[in-house]
Amino acid sequence: MTKKKERAAELYNALITAYPDAHCALNYNNPFELLVATILSAQATDVGVNKATPALFEKHPTPESMAAVTPEELEPLISTIGLFRNKAKSIHASATMIRDDFGSEVPDNMKDLLKLRGVARKTANVVLGNAFGKNEGVVVDTHVGRLAGRFGLTKETKPEKIEKDLMKLFPQDDWTMLSHLLVRHGREVCKKRGALCDSNDI
Fold first, then answer.
1. 112 catalytically annotated
2. Catalytic annotation present for 122
Protein backbone atom coordinates (compact mmCIF):
# COMPACT_ATOMS: atom_id res chain seq x y z
CA MET A 1 0.00 0.00 0.00
CA THR A 2 1.37 3.39 -0.98
CA LYS A 3 1.80 6.13 1.57
CA LYS A 4 -1.03 8.10 -0.03
CA LYS A 5 -3.37 5.11 0.21
CA GLU A 6 -2.40 4.59 3.84
CA ARG A 7 -3.19 8.24 4.48
CA ALA A 8 -6.54 7.82 2.70
CA ALA A 9 -7.38 4.75 4.80
CA GLU A 10 -6.55 6.61 8.02
CA LEU A 11 -8.72 9.52 6.93
CA TYR A 12 -11.65 7.24 6.08
CA ASN A 13 -11.41 5.45 9.42
CA ALA A 14 -11.33 8.76 11.28
CA LEU A 15 -14.36 10.06 9.37
CA ILE A 16 -16.44 6.89 9.79
CA THR A 17 -15.67 6.96 13.51
CA ALA A 18 -16.75 10.59 13.74
CA TYR A 19 -19.88 10.18 11.59
CA PRO A 20 -21.05 6.55 11.75
CA ASP A 21 -24.58 7.58 10.75
CA ALA A 22 -23.59 9.60 7.66
CA HIS A 23 -26.14 9.14 4.89
CA CYS A 24 -27.75 10.79 1.88
CA ALA A 25 -29.27 14.08 3.02
CA LEU A 26 -32.07 13.99 0.44
CA ASN A 27 -35.35 12.41 1.53
CA TYR A 28 -36.68 9.67 -0.76
CA ASN A 29 -38.62 6.41 -0.71
CA ASN A 30 -37.61 4.88 -4.03
CA PRO A 31 -35.17 5.34 -6.95
CA PHE A 32 -37.52 7.67 -8.85
CA GLU A 33 -37.89 10.03 -5.90
CA LEU A 34 -34.13 10.10 -5.36
CA LEU A 35 -33.50 10.78 -9.05
CA VAL A 36 -35.93 13.71 -9.08
CA ALA A 37 -34.65 15.09 -5.77
CA THR A 38 -31.05 14.93 -6.99
CA ILE A 39 -31.89 16.74 -10.22
CA LEU A 40 -33.64 19.42 -8.16
CA SER A 41 -30.67 19.73 -5.79
CA ALA A 42 -28.32 21.20 -8.41
CA GLN A 43 -27.30 24.67 -7.16
CA ALA A 44 -29.83 24.32 -4.34
CA THR A 45 -29.70 23.12 -0.74
CA ASP A 46 -30.81 19.65 0.31
CA VAL A 47 -32.95 21.30 2.99
CA GLY A 48 -34.76 23.37 0.37
CA VAL A 49 -35.31 20.34 -1.84
CA ASN A 50 -36.63 18.28 1.08
CA LYS A 51 -39.19 20.99 1.82
CA ALA A 52 -40.48 20.99 -1.76
CA THR A 53 -40.52 17.30 -2.68
CA PRO A 54 -43.28 15.99 -0.35
CA ALA A 55 -45.97 17.98 -2.19
CA LEU A 56 -44.43 17.12 -5.56
CA PHE A 57 -44.33 13.39 -4.86
CA GLU A 58 -47.78 13.37 -3.29
CA LYS A 59 -49.22 14.73 -6.52
CA HIS A 60 -46.87 12.93 -8.93
CA PRO A 61 -45.45 9.81 -7.25
CA THR A 62 -44.55 7.92 -10.43
CA PRO A 63 -42.87 8.58 -13.79
CA GLU A 64 -46.25 8.06 -15.49
CA SER A 65 -47.92 10.69 -13.33
CA MET A 66 -45.15 13.23 -13.79
CA ALA A 67 -44.92 12.62 -17.53
CA ALA A 68 -48.68 13.03 -17.95
CA VAL A 69 -48.60 16.74 -17.10
CA THR A 70 -46.68 19.63 -18.62
CA PRO A 71 -43.48 21.11 -17.19
CA GLU A 72 -45.47 24.29 -16.54
CA GLU A 73 -47.82 22.33 -14.28
CA LEU A 74 -44.84 21.09 -12.27
CA GLU A 75 -43.36 24.55 -11.77
CA PRO A 76 -45.62 25.72 -8.88
CA LEU A 77 -44.70 22.60 -6.91
CA ILE A 78 -40.97 23.37 -7.04
CA SER A 79 -41.02 27.17 -7.33
CA THR A 80 -39.14 27.60 -4.04
CA ILE A 81 -36.08 25.90 -5.58
CA GLY A 82 -33.58 27.83 -7.68
CA LEU A 83 -33.76 27.43 -11.47
CA PHE A 84 -37.15 25.76 -11.03
CA ARG A 85 -38.33 26.35 -14.61
CA ASN A 86 -35.38 24.53 -16.14
CA LYS A 87 -35.59 21.83 -13.49
CA ALA A 88 -39.30 21.32 -14.20
CA LYS A 89 -38.38 20.64 -17.83
CA SER A 90 -35.62 18.24 -16.74
CA ILE A 91 -37.71 16.15 -14.34
CA HIS A 92 -40.58 16.05 -16.84
CA ALA A 93 -38.31 14.93 -19.68
CA SER A 94 -36.63 12.34 -17.45
CA ALA A 95 -39.97 10.99 -16.26
CA THR A 96 -41.16 10.77 -19.86
CA MET A 97 -38.08 8.85 -20.99
CA ILE A 98 -38.29 6.50 -18.01
CA ARG A 99 -41.93 5.80 -18.89
CA ASP A 100 -41.39 5.41 -22.62
CA ASP A 101 -37.94 3.83 -22.87
CA PHE A 102 -37.35 2.03 -19.58
CA GLY A 103 -40.71 0.51 -18.69
CA SER A 104 -41.31 3.10 -15.96
CA GLU A 105 -38.30 1.82 -14.01
CA VAL A 106 -35.36 4.08 -13.19
CA PRO A 107 -32.27 2.65 -14.93
CA ASP A 108 -29.78 0.99 -12.59
CA ASN A 109 -26.71 1.58 -14.75
CA MET A 110 -24.56 4.59 -15.58
CA LYS A 111 -25.00 4.42 -19.37
CA ASP A 112 -28.79 4.68 -19.30
CA LEU A 113 -28.99 7.16 -16.43
CA LEU A 114 -26.80 9.57 -18.39
CA LYS A 115 -29.39 9.57 -21.18
CA LEU A 116 -31.87 11.33 -18.89
CA ARG A 117 -32.19 15.10 -19.03
CA GLY A 118 -30.62 16.83 -16.05
CA VAL A 119 -28.47 13.82 -15.21
CA ALA A 120 -24.69 14.03 -15.30
CA ARG A 121 -22.23 11.70 -13.64
CA LYS A 122 -22.66 13.21 -10.16
CA THR A 123 -26.43 12.65 -10.16
CA ALA A 124 -26.03 9.16 -11.61
CA ASN A 125 -23.55 8.28 -8.85
CA VAL A 126 -26.00 9.49 -6.19
CA VAL A 127 -28.80 7.31 -7.59
CA LEU A 128 -26.66 4.24 -8.20
CA GLY A 129 -24.92 4.37 -4.84
CA ASN A 130 -27.92 5.14 -2.65
CA ALA A 131 -30.96 3.70 -4.42
CA PHE A 132 -29.29 0.62 -5.92
CA GLY A 133 -26.26 0.03 -3.69
CA LYS A 134 -23.90 0.18 -6.67
CA ASN A 135 -20.54 1.88 -6.16
CA GLU A 136 -19.70 2.95 -9.70
CA GLY A 137 -18.08 6.24 -8.74
CA VAL A 138 -17.62 8.93 -6.11
CA VAL A 139 -20.11 11.78 -5.84
CA VAL A 140 -18.05 14.97 -6.10
CA ASP A 141 -19.99 18.02 -4.95
CA THR A 142 -18.52 21.28 -3.67
CA HIS A 143 -17.81 19.82 -0.21
CA VAL A 144 -16.12 16.69 -1.55
CA GLY A 145 -14.04 18.60 -4.08
CA ARG A 146 -12.93 21.18 -1.52
CA LEU A 147 -12.03 18.69 1.19
CA ALA A 148 -10.28 16.31 -1.19
CA GLY A 149 -7.94 19.19 -2.02
CA ARG A 150 -7.48 20.30 1.58
CA PHE A 151 -6.71 16.77 2.72
CA GLY A 152 -4.11 16.36 -0.02
CA LEU A 153 -6.04 13.62 -1.84
CA THR A 154 -5.95 15.44 -5.16
CA LYS A 155 -4.49 18.46 -6.88
CA GLU A 156 -7.24 18.52 -9.48
CA THR A 157 -10.04 21.08 -9.58
CA LYS A 158 -12.43 19.52 -12.11
CA PRO A 159 -14.99 17.13 -10.54
CA GLU A 160 -14.40 14.28 -12.99
CA LYS A 161 -10.63 14.38 -12.36
CA ILE A 162 -11.11 14.64 -8.59
CA GLU A 163 -13.39 11.61 -8.79
CA LYS A 164 -10.76 9.57 -10.64
CA ASP A 165 -8.14 10.41 -8.01
CA LEU A 166 -10.46 9.40 -5.16
CA MET A 167 -11.42 6.17 -6.91
CA LYS A 168 -7.74 5.22 -7.06
CA LEU A 169 -7.20 5.88 -3.35
CA PHE A 170 -10.26 4.28 -1.73
CA PRO A 171 -11.75 0.76 -2.04
CA GLN A 172 -14.75 0.62 -4.37
CA ASP A 173 -17.06 -0.57 -1.58
CA ASP A 174 -16.40 2.70 0.26
CA TRP A 175 -17.07 5.16 -2.56
CA THR A 176 -20.67 6.06 -1.73
CA MET A 177 -20.04 6.36 2.01
CA LEU A 178 -16.89 8.39 1.36
CA SER A 179 -19.00 11.09 -0.26
CA HIS A 180 -21.46 11.13 2.65
CA LEU A 181 -18.59 11.41 5.14
CA LEU A 182 -16.85 14.27 3.36
CA VAL A 183 -20.12 16.15 2.88
CA ARG A 184 -20.99 15.73 6.56
CA HIS A 185 -17.54 16.87 7.67
CA GLY A 186 -17.64 19.79 5.27
CA ARG A 187 -20.98 20.97 6.62
CA GLU A 188 -20.21 20.51 10.30
CA VAL A 189 -16.51 21.25 10.75
CA CYS A 190 -14.49 22.17 7.71
CA LYS A 191 -16.18 25.40 6.70
CA LYS A 192 -15.54 26.99 3.35
CA ARG A 193 -13.13 29.63 4.62
CA GLY A 194 -12.50 28.27 8.09
CA ALA A 195 -9.33 26.78 9.48
CA LEU A 196 -10.98 23.77 11.12
CA CYS A 197 -9.87 21.39 8.44
CA ASP A 198 -6.98 19.34 9.76
CA SER A 199 -7.54 15.61 9.32
CA ASN A 200 -5.55 15.06 12.52
CA ASP A 201 -8.39 16.74 14.42
CA ILE A 202 -11.27 14.69 13.01
1. no
2. yes
